[in-house]
Amino acid sequence: xxxxLIIAAVLLFITxxxxxxxxxxxxxxxxxxxxxxxxxxxxxxxxxxxxxxxGYQLRNKIPVYxxxxxxxxxxxxxxxxxxxxxxxxxxxxxxxxxIDVQVNGSVTADVTVDxxxxxxxxxxxxxxxxxxxxxxxxxxxxxxxxxxxxxxIGQTTIVDQNNNMANASLPANQIPDFGQPVTITxxxxxxxxxxxxxxxxxxxKTNGVAELLYSLPMGMSNK
Length: 223
Description:
Layout: H1 2-20, E1 27-35, E2 38-39, E3 48-53, E4 61-65, E5 71-76, E6 79-85, E7 99-103, E8 106-108, E9 111-112, E10 117-127, E11 130-139, E12 146-154, E13 166-171, E14 182-187, E15 197-206, E16 213-214, E17 218-221
Parallel strand pairs: 1-8, 1-9
Antiparallel strand pairs: 1-2, 1-5, 3-4, 3-6, 6-7, 10-11, 11-14, 12-13, 12-15, 15-16, 15-17
């Protein structure tokens, strides 16, 4: 009896080891969120894509988070996937259609979106302990209206509405006609005034949309 129990335990151990030693996924899906071929900048980890693999009885989504420069990457097994944007998650109109992605090794799959607003020609100037951003806003999808434009100041390259040490907001009723220069000034907080560098970024907020569309973060010498 004891001999049979020992054999059963050994078989369970071997089976468990086989499961634990299953090869991890080695293929890669990479891409960017783009408009007119150019990547769009967002809040780091704030925008999510979903991958669904078909051909299996049970299907689980694979969440893929977009970096602040608009790029994304996911390690997957080879196979056929559907890639979708999470509804209501980004600063663009919902995209009901999915994208078919066939993976065999590494594949690139950019996602074209229809943003509500984009930011152009951003420049920054420091005067004393203030930073002024100058930029232009362009409406793209006019199904929603502009809420505000914002300037963020942070200590690291990750700077956005959730990660900043100072910010300033300009409501839509104080923003000139689209295409005209917009300026926003924010005070540098005391905690950053003696640092070697600080980082700045402009965001545009659409009414009824949680996530902003941003310019890329820019580092500024603080000396």
